[in-house]
Amino acid sequence: MLFSTIVFVLYFLPVVLILYYIFSFSRRLQNILLFIASLVFYAWGEVKFVFVMCLSILVNTLMGYLVDKYRVRKMKSKVFMFLAVSYNLLVLFVFKYLMFSVRNINLLFSANITLKNIALPLGISFYTFQAISYVVDVYRDDAKVEKNPFYVGLYIAFFPQLIAGPIVRYNTIADQIKNRKSSMQKFSVGCCRFLVGFSKKILLANNFALVADKIFELTYSKNIPVTMAWLGGIAYTLQIYYDFSAYSDMAIGLAAMFGFRLEENFNYPYISKSISEFWRRWHISLSTFFKEYVYFPLGGSKVENEDKMVRNMLIVWLLTGIWHGAEWTFFLWGLCNFVFILGERLFKFEKSNINNFMKHIYALIVIVIGWVLFRAENLSHAFIYLRNM
Fold this sequence. Notes:
Blueprint: H1 6-22, H2 27-43, H3 48-69, H4 74-109, H5 124-140, H6 149-157, H7 170-179, H8 184-221, H9 226-257, H10 275-281, H11 284-295, H12 306-324, H13 328-346, H14 356-375, H15 379-388
Helix pairs in contact: 1-2, 2-6, 3-4, 3-5, 3-6, 4-5, 8-9, 9-14, 11-12, 12-13, 13-14, 14-15
């Protein structure tokens, strides 16, 4: 079920809201309602994937408990944390990357491995990262362990941010699950924010998509003029922003209707004057996740030599690309972001005396080209499109 569908707007959401405020005398009943509603929301597309999510909830609840229980025995606690992270990544790999891996093994080694097509569960990349952050934060003592799987379940399955983020850390929402306060002001702010996102999606993103899809389709079948190729790239640049930020707006608005406060995920990314600034403004929760759980644990920038800093950045950006999808275009897109951000860092681009307008133009050109890589179906199509540009 998507936020922009008739079923959600006219049936699912009104029923859940009415029941939620009928149960205003009991926070426990409200949480039970939200958990059940989240499972129904998720099951709407494919019921069997609910079991994958429920298993994730149970496994991560158990592992979080064991990590905390054996905290004084550091090595044992670390083993349980490692097992939890491994389980989550294994599930993500099976559903999202196994078919891609088999396809490339067949091409590389002339093998003939066949697998039944594996459907991708909606939102698995988002809720898997949230599950990982919960267990790791318990291990670091950045979050209190939750022994009740119901509360961990509500955190992982909460429908407003389930399918497209933002990625939420448990310590930012744990107290809200049990002690949040609803009000008419929060509700009205939430409604307005939801409508902003809904309008972005329906009026802007969907119409930019018509232009982008048609031009990309034409490019794969024949050569097109340079201006049309750039028009398609710009249309997709606008489409992906208005689409993705729309879902974040709707998620933040929906959460506010139920008394929750979620962090912002976008901050006017297309006003950026560098690629580094762009990634401080775009999908903020994902950038924060990789910084907290990959970049800093590897040593971040505080390492004894620049080679290790470059290594750390490369790992983060390759993982960022791969996280977005199982195709070489995403890998190359992540690598391109790494190259530009590293270059900006080495040459102190953001502090340079280059005119701000020129910096802005540079950033937009790189962003548009990057989104072409991101949008292309495969590397061959990407190179065809870039050649036309």
